[in-house]
Design brief:
This protein is mainly beta and 124 residues long. Helix content is 12%, strand content 36%.
Length: 124
């Protein structure tokens, strides 16, 4: 019996952390189907709120997230997914989606860009 508390839209936030670096590489959402597929396949699946569809992380880029651990927070309403992140998590080419730092001058890119997003995804 799973104790995950999905919200009124049937979603739960997922914080994704790389197993080796311990970097938080992204935050996404799962519905029950995405969660079940993640457990079954060992690859991270999510629910895209913007596209309103299920997606396998890495399906188009090859930058899969191999699941190493699934943790549930104390309120049962947030998942921590520990993964072996292949290449990069961010669709913009950065290792992590959290690549910008707030400075007095505004947001500054401080993360590592590891691939050219146009060569992977084309001009979108």
């Amino acid at each position: 019996m799973e104790d995950i508390k999905f919200d009124a839209k049937g979603l739960v936030p997922v914080v994704v952390q790389d197993e080796k670096t311990r970097d938080v590489v992204m935050v996404a959402y799962m519905n029950q189907e995405a969660y079940d597929l993640t457990v079954k396949t060992g690859k991270a699946h999510y629910w895209s709120r913007s596209r309103n569809q299920l997606w396998l992380k890495g399906e188009s880029s090859g930058h899969f997230q191999m699941v190493k651990g699934i943790y549930l927070d104390c309120d049962n309403d947030t998942i921590l997914l520990v993964v072996d992140q292949k290449m990069a998590a961010c669709h913009t080419g950065y290792w992590s989606c959290f690549y910008r730092l707030r400075t007095d001058e505004g947001w500054k890119a401080v993360g590592e860009k590891v691939f050219d997003e146009k060569s992977v995804y084309g001009d979108k």
